[in-house]
Amino acid sequence: MDLKERLALLRSLRSGTRADSAMPEDVEPLQHNQERGADIEKNEDSFSEASVRRSMPADWEMLAPHVWQRILDRPAGRLPHMVQWPGTGGIDPGELVFFDLETSGLSGGAGTVAFLCGAATFVDGVLLITQYYLDDYPGERHFLEYVLDDLGKKRYWITYNGRTFDMPLLGTRCIMQGMMLMEDIRHIDILPAVRSLWKRRFGSCTLQAMEYYLYGLLREHDIPGSMVPKIWLEAVKTRQASEELQEMLHRIWNHNAQDIVSLANLFFDVADCLEHPEEAVERHAADPEGLARLLEKYDKEGDALHVLESALLVEESHSLPGARYQHALRHLARLAWRRKDWAILSAALSSMDDAIQSCIIRAKYFEHVAGDLPVALYWAEKALDCVKGEEPGRAEKGSSDDPYSLAGIERRIARLRRRIAAANQ
Questions:
Q1: Can you say how many angstroms the Cα of residue 177 is from the centroid of all Cα atoms in its chain?
Q2: CATH number, domain with residue 109
């Protein structure tokens, strides 16, 4: 496959089309490689003087020219017998592989190369981490073959922001090397779920931040992600790295390994929040509204309602700041409305403030549920005063289809007045 054909495949990948639909016949699917060593024979010729032999620590083994491997083990901690992840019917932890890439750039463009991959699986209750390291560009194809052969042995690939970075980058590099990913990957990127559960509570959702907030772990001698590409590019240019450069590489390798451990811990915590949502707020410090939204995404609306009710109404004192508490209350009210749970809706209304959205929810309730038109009109007019009292220009925005806009509120008031007039005749 020549460069022109590969660039055409890259364009198809970015446009959302299936890369394999345009794959030329000379591209070899990875799943057709029956053995890892099909094209990489570890013999004297493979490690001839023609290949660059860099000095590496003793725990690294050379697999092919420019490709190295080391294996680490870490305690697994709490390992469930079966992971109840939505839409899977349950996952045996042995079917999971947790992986993370370190790359030569942070943008993920066509020129960005993955030079380090950490892939972890559970073996006899221990988290076994295999790291693959590429020390120079010519070894990329062999690096990818080893990485994908390892990942392909597991059914579920777990990543942190893999949907927008690791997976597209991996696909791009495979295309550039005349390869392709297998078709039956089941990829789970947990970053969106982590953001739903903890972003409102903690702010930052980097792995390092989550380690600190959830596990009390503060990394020592860690390396900022922004420095990683520069250090590797410097190492590529240097056959014998200085002690300082070697130390920086050590930090990158350890950074990657710790990312994998934290990824595994977070995956099980997110799964536990979804399986036992009634305990997630207290056990995992999950944000109630974020947890509710995540449960709704997975068609667990009843659990979402119960979580919000418990967090906002059952407890005598709530732990959310005022603005977030009110926002969550309005979410609870809308959810109760959809499920026609008028008791919960009424309880939520009694704790709401007098913001525009709160006033409109009350107006809807008293018009359509309680049947008290004068009270409904009172809240609609109060919402109108709130809109007009906001910053200049705000009141003119919106259409009558938006119940919270000036036009929408005036339409509601006009309807209520007509109904009250008709009832008094």
A1: 28
A2: 3.30.420.10
How far apart (Å, rounded) are the C-alpha atoms in residues 265 and 273? 13
Give yes or no: residues 19 and 167 share one domain.
Answer: yes
CATH code, 290? 1.25.40
Backbone angles phi, psi at 293, to 5 degrees: -65, -40
**165 and 96 in a common domain:** yes
One domain for residues 37 and 108: yes
The token duo for 21 is 């639909």
Do residues 139 and 67 touch, judged by C-beta distance below 8 A?
yes
Domains of the chain: total: 3
What does the pLDDT profile of the chain (425 residues) look like in tens digits?
A: 555 554 454 454 444 433 333 333 333 333 333 333 334 344 334 444 444 557 799 999 999 999 999 999 998 777 888 999 999 999 999 999 999 999 998 776 778 999 999 999 999 889 999 999 999 999 999 999 999 999 999 999 999 999 999 999 999 999 999 998 887 889 999 999 999 999 999 999 999 999 999 999 998 888 888 899 999 999 999 878 889 999 999 999 999 999 999 999 999 999 999 999 999 999 999 999 999 999 999 999 999 999 999 988 876 556 678 888 999 999 999 999 999 999 999 999 999 999 999 999 999 999 999 999 999 999 999 999 998 887 555 555 566 678 888 899 999 999 999 999 999 98
- Say how many CA atoms lie within 13 Å of 172 toward its Cβ: 20
Tell me: do 306 and 412 sit in the same domain.
no
Residues 219 and 360 grouped into a single domain: no
pTM over 0.90: no
Q: How far apart are the first and last CA of the chain?
A: 83
Q: How many other C-beta atoms are found inside a 10 Å radius of the C-beta of residue 272?
A: 19
Boundary of a domain, candidates 232, 253, 275? 275
What is the spatial distance between Cα 111 and Cα 147, in angstroms, rounded to a whole number?
19
Q: How big is the chain by its Cα radius of gyration, in Å?
A: 28
Q: Which domain holds residue 368?
A: 354-425
Instruction: Specify whether 32 is located in the same domain as 156.
Output: yes
